[in-house]
Amino acid sequence: MKLSPKSLLLLAVTTSSASAGLLSYGICQSGCNGMAVACYSSAGFVFGAVTAGAGIPAAIVGCNTALGCCMASCVVAGISPVP
């Protein structure tokens, strides 16, 4: 199927996609941080008050690992086009 220049122009003008990347990325990051706060609370700590060191409990290491994975997956939400 060969498209004429008029058809291509009409297709380009009528087809659009919006990218809500920053909004989606921000919402995803907020969700990840909410999960981290809940994880820290369930371990008996306050999010942001634990400093890195040799005495970090395993639960906090798990919370931080989950937070890192969650935030890394937010990149997909940031670059995905939203119609």
From TrEMBL:
<keyword id="KW-0732">Signal</keyword>
<feature type="signal peptide">
    <location>
        <begin position="1"/>
        <end position="20"/>
    </location>
</feature>
<protein>
    <recommendedName>
        <fullName>Cysteine-rich protein</fullName>
    </recommendedName>
</protein>
